[in-house]
Amino acid sequence: MDHDEVPSTPRASFRKFPGQLSGVGKAIGVLTSGGDAQGMNAAVRAVVRMGIYAGAKVYFIYEGYQGMVDGGSNIVEADWESVSSILQVGGTIIGSARCTAFRSREGRLKAAHNLVQRGITNLCVIGGDGSLTGANIFREEWSGLLEELAQNGKINKEEVKKHGYLNVVGMVGSIDNDFCGTDMTIGTDSALHRIIEVVDAIMTTAQSHQRTFVLEVMGRHCGYLALVSALACGADWVFLPESPPEDGWQETMCTKLSENRARKKRLNIIIVAEGAIDTQNKPITSEQIKDLVVTRLGYDTRVTILGHVQRGGTPSAFDRILASRMGVEAVVALLQATPETPACVVSLSGNQAVRLPLMECVQMTQDVQKAMDERRFKDAVKLRGRSFEGNLNTYKRLSITMSGSEILKSGFNVAVINVGAPAAGMNAAVRSAVRFGISEGHKMYAVYDGFEGFAKGQIKEIGWSDVGGWTGQGGSILGTKRTLPGKYLEEIAEQMRTHSISALLIIGGFEAFRSSVIFAEARGDHQELCIPICVLPANISNNVPGTELSVGCDTALNAVVETCDRIKQSASGTKRRVFIIETMGGYCGYLANMGALAAGADAAYIFEEPFDIRDLQANVEHLTEKMKTTIQRGLVLRNENCSENYTTDFIYQLYSEEGKGVFDCRKNVLGHMQQGGAPSPFDRNFGTKISARAMQWITTKLREAQGKGKRFITDDSICVLGICKRNLVFQPVAELKKETDFEHRIPKEQWWLKLRPLMKILAKYKASLDVSESGQLEHVHCGHEEPAAI
């Protein structure tokens, strides 16, 4: 969702929405239906607060459609404070239930009567495809239902006229990610967090005993969770409903497991979706697989069924931000809707919020099931969307070892290096690059300890099994340094000559980008640098030009948010306490701003949005007002370099003095804990996928020039690979140079600044929201561009 120039302060001129967007006189009902998912509460909170902010009345509909049919105390007006402290809670606070009554016209008649009595003609439904289909039927029948109610004398003609049509906007809350048209449904990322926590724990015990573990994850009709967790932990085998194993898979799988053991791998992990089937649509169960491994291979094998653990726990940072963005977008969509507007779903495409016709998405979701029932599995995978297909192909490439004799040697040597500060997910990226490179026939070289190591000749050939088990490791196994190559150009060129390096993959942060700029400029003096060079952005600050997200920033954001949750809890217990928290990020305010959005903070001070003493004063006054309500705590984030003079200590002392007698203050500097830890599922998967894509690009470049003795001197042979809105894009560093503020090490334009007003609105500040880019209904399509879906 896009917003305009962000007024920098709570004092900002409050520009009401353009005429059609005022919510005055409108009533919105919000319900959660079907299976629960982490992040539903964040969505409910965003809908309630955005609705109230726009001047509408917002009602909770408790227990899903059942509450709508039963009415009475199940439909209650919500206020600002009724959604306080729910952002970090899993499940849904307004309850969810399966409802048979709503499936009958009689039930829907009761529901319509209950809504009309309260003037609710806008519905925001958070649930799966069943819940959304139900809402659409209700919308289509609405005028007929009102006529019938008028005939029965339940309502008068005036009311029929006044509440003539019902608007419906859906958000998909489902841990399975089984809804077509959206890249990620609310809850999927959190479910992956639960699965990966378990897998990481199981791996340590399996290593000790040389065991094989069969893990069953949720997904009755959709293998997304199984597929992505297999990618994220480097599982030996995965069973999915959409892509059943070929006949004779028993033999193939056992061969693969024993080959892996022969390579000194002490454990095997097999992941099974609960809906796994074979090509004849017969179920494949985890017990069956266990018995097979025990009888054929005699391995000590255990089954772990994760079950409802996957639905539980606190939502991840990704799900909180996704749900907050979608919740606000849903309210805007409802307020812009006309009687002719079809029911729509707000969803995510790459990194962009979009609106899609609800029934198109539902139809496509049902088509997948139909394709599976008819054993058209290739179609099923295609219909699942670009992201699913991409994940499946990457998994196959990286997990199926080919013997040396099967691979045609390309004659190219490709080097991989880590540069800058360590970031979680770097190792997953290295593993992916090495394996993808080997499968393309290249010789892969690892450079240790950054450019210093490169100059000293710390370069070794690295093989397929050398990178086994790297996906889940935090930090950088190759070792990384911030040193730029400038003063070592002679030595580096010599090492490249010695090892005949034909291409270079640089994985790192802003220094990786700076290095590529230095290399581009030095090509005239060193012909060894006239090779394809690709920069893969990996750092926690998310400040690399040419990408909206860097590998590692999701893990760091989760670390910030987890700490904020704990601190908030402590502040709530003590009452009337405000915490000032300092985050890392250099001059880039990404962690502070997104951390504030995901943790429900009151303010975030960042370098990109200058502030002065009056802004600080206004924030203190805002917190003083807040202490008069039932929410007696405050949370303020500050980016480490947001201001030279308004330091964390200064802000802490100012707040302490100004808040005297109203609240007391504490400060907390998060420091290097933001750099450490095991990578989140998002960073493992993102690192794996973009690294494979980078190697594909390198391979294509090398093959095009093969035998032509061509040197790479054009701008498009030194690129940064990143996400831009919806697509993965290679951008020449020569172009990106113009878009970079080198002094502060940030891109001149940053997409997330458009989410600033969201954070302010949800924290009860007045901010203007530009909705000029919202409103266009798109169609569900399978594009040919390069998907940035994660």
TrEMBL record:
Listed binding positions for beta-D-fructose 2,6-bisphosphate are: 482, 577, 584-586, 640, 666, 672-675, 745
Enzyme group, top EC level? Answer: transferase
Q: Which reaction does it catalyse?
A: beta-D-fructose 6-phosphate + ATP = beta-D-fructose 1,6-bisphosphate + ADP + H(+)
Q: Which residues form a coiled coil?
A: none
Which pathway does it operate in?
Carbohydrate degradation; glycolysis; D-glyceraldehyde 3-phosphate and glycerone phosphate from D-glucose: step 3/4
A single Pfam family, by name?
PFK
Protein's GO biological process: canonical glycolysis; fructose 1,6-bisphosphate metabolic process; fructose 6-phosphate metabolic process
* An MF annotation (GO) of this entry: ATP binding
Taxonomically, the superkingdom here is Eukaryota
Regulation of protein activity:
Allosterically activated by ADP, AMP, or fructose 2,6-bisphosphate, and allosterically inhibited by ATP or citrate.
Cofactors that this protein relies on: Mg(2+)
Q: Which UniProt keywords apply?
A: Acetylation, Allosteric enzyme, ATP-binding, Cytoplasm, Glycolysis, Glycoprotein, Kinase, Magnesium, Metal-binding, Nucleotide-binding, Phosphoprotein, Transferase
In this chain, ATP is annotated as bound at 35, 98-99, 128-131
Q: Where is this region: N-terminal catalytic PFK domain 1?
A: 1-400
Question: InterPro entries in the record, alphabetically?
Answer: 6-Pfructokinase_euk, ATP_PFK, PFK_vert-type, Phosphofructokinase_CS, Phosphofructokinase_dom, PKF_sf
Q: Which residues bind Mg(2+)?
A: 129
Q: How does it assemble?
A: Homo- and heterotetramers.
Instruction: Please give the family membership noted in the entry.
Output: Belongs to the phosphofructokinase type A (PFKA) family. ATP-dependent PFK group I subfamily. Eukaryotic two domain clade 'E' sub-subfamily.
Described purpose of this protein according to its UniProt entry: Catalyzes the phosphorylation of D-fructose 6-phosphate to fructose 1,6-bisphosphate by ATP, the first committing step of glycolysis.
Q: What is this protein called?
A: ATP-dependent 6-phosphofructokinase
